[in-house]
Known about the structure:
- This protein is α+β, with helices and mostly antiparallel strands and 208 residues long.
- Helices cover 34% and strands 21% of the residues.
- The protein has four helices and nine strands; from the N terminus they run αβββββαβαβββα.
- A hairpin with a 5-residue loop joins strand 8 (174-178) and strand 9.
Amino acid sequence: MSADRSADRVPRRTRRRRLALLAAGAAVASLTLSACGDGASGGSAQTRFVQGENGIDTVKPADRQDAPHLSGETTRGEKLDLADYQGKIIIVNVWGSWCDPCIAEAPNFAKVARETKGKGVQFIGINTRDAEKAQAVGFEDDHKVPYPSLYDPTGGRQILRFPKGSLNPQAIPSTIAIDRHGKIAARSLGPLTEDDLRTMVDQLVAEK
């Protein structure tokens, strides 16, 4: 291989790396634009989900996609791996301490999480865009949040693991429901009332 060809490949690799970083940045930016607001959603032949009157999108069991492998460090510096909750219904809530709708829905999540734990339901948070863990921990303490949250300050590491075309997070707050088989079953973009959150959870508890 000549020196000229070898030198030519270096900038190509650099360009590919830059393109990948730009794509990831664009995805995070799209989430940022809809932060603390109600994301738009609707059913389609491609995504195969149906939007209910309460704003909760649902997918029939046969059409559900695998949930991503979420793992990392929590807001309190502990290790968390979604695989440790295999066989449970998992409710993933994307939130930030700075987000007013997140503050409004926090008591609903704390209450429903405590009351459904005995039914095989595990709540997990993804804290995003808090520059310091102390901000997130203060939020958890103030609202007596009984479940752990992955710390994802840029919103990229965890959120971008959700498969494209699935019921993925597109707003802050967003809530994703994962069934007992590790499949994405439902999603809400925007804050949830206690009744709507219970509806999301109870539908999956009732599944066999």
